[in-house]
Amino acid sequence: MRMLIVEDEAQLRLQLAQHFSEAGWVVEEAADGPEALYMGSEHPYDLAVVDVGLPGVSGVEVVRQWREQGNTFPVLILTARGDWQDKVEGLEAGADDYVTKPFHLPEVQARINALHRRSAGLASDRVSFGPITLDLAARTVAVDGVALDLTTFEYNTLEYLATRAGTVVSKTELTEHLYDQDFDRDSNVIEVFIGRLRKKIDPQNTLKPIKTVRGAGYRFVLDGSR
Amino acid sequence: MRMLIVEDEAQLRLQLAQHFSEAGWVVEEAADGPEALYMGSEHPYDLAVVDVGLPGVSGVEVVRQWREQGNTFPVLILTARGDWQDKVEGLEAGADDYVTKPFHLPEVQARINALHRRSAGLASDRVSFGPITLDLAARTVAVDGVALDLTTFEYNTLEYLATRAGTVVSKTELTEHLYDQDFDRDSNVIEVFIGRLRKKIDPQNTLKPIKTVRGAGYRFVLDGSR
DNA sequence: TTTTTCGTTCAGTTTGCATTCATGTTTACG
DNA sequence: CGTAAACATGAATGCAAACTGAACGAAAAA
Questions:
Q1: Which helix (H) or strand (E) segment is B92 a member of?
Q2: Would you tell me which of A137, A222, B108, B179 could form a disulfide with A130, CB atoms 3.0–4.6 Å apart?
Q3: Does the beta-carbon distance from A151 to B225 stay under 8 Å?
């Protein structure tokens, strides 16, 4: 999943970026309002963290303009402690949640997990499809109760497909959400990962949870149903 | 584990600091309210000891503000004997336990152990994973009933991983909780300790209790389970 | 003092894994 | 059928992350 971090203070921005990279996100950064506006309108992020106290174009303004452009990804704003007004304005501008600075990473992490989960339309951190269970918080997958040993990208690919189970996901959509902007557009990585996933999830090839929709992409489903 | 001691009286502060250093904690100190507020919001401590009778911003106030910021680490407050009110206010502000001054170190030690254990979500001082058993109070580890000879840091590293068994712990997280703020960020100590731990716990390399999650950190887990 | 213990650094090596490439297989459609 | 495009797959590559053994040096112990 791809996240945009908008924060002018370099140290804090880096700290957040490092943390969420380690947590498995693809992270991009913007240091000021205009940059944030550009990046947010150019790329399909899955989530954004925005400091409202930006120099120049304020964070609230950034969020407002994103929303006016029809951007729907969840936005978490960072407000200075006691700045009641910022918080209210931010939420009115279309932010989904807020955390006051100084904050503790676990708190930000928790709220981001919640936002991300909600935006995927899930009630819980755990999703099951027959014998296949994903734990979004722990980033683990089990088949028939046995944990699978997946690499970061294998897991990312599977999570993206599974949280959109039943719908067709194109290869471009996958690369847009699993890679940052400088991705080689004519690579076949996705095909390779799909292959490896199929082999790891279902070595006997009996479940066939990932169907190919020729010319359109892939669809995660179980059973013969549709 | 990293602890913050907030106490204005230098002699007492030093006594506590020395005691808990020897007990294996990484100890940092604050001498007044503002300093305590700053440090508590800046660093991810695992526990704090706060004297309520601070000049300037009172200890109760410090705890209240920490809690408002979403800080969750356990807090033990020190109150003057007979100062009934302080104790009540402190607990209401979000402290977890109290000790009245003058106190006996063993008592403080015992309460801190209890708080720390509870915050790790453990019911007992003893934790087992298959043949591996840690005794948090005695800071000892045994494999198949045979005691291991671990150094302070080796034990600390193992304890941190084991009390979070099943989840991925990043190297950054480890250094944040096992070292104080002036830690050389591009050191590979953690890797070295992980290596030594693996060798000591499991010389035949059959249990493989510490798994590497490339790019993310380490995960303590036994068998294929979870 | 000398000796030992341990935390830390460093350099060299290994390994995991994302990515590419070449080739094989399926499918749609004329 | 035939053929071209889309997809699958096994092996090869390259690089950064992780591992490791040795050495250093500070502090504790003897």
A1: helix B84-93
A2: A222
A3: no
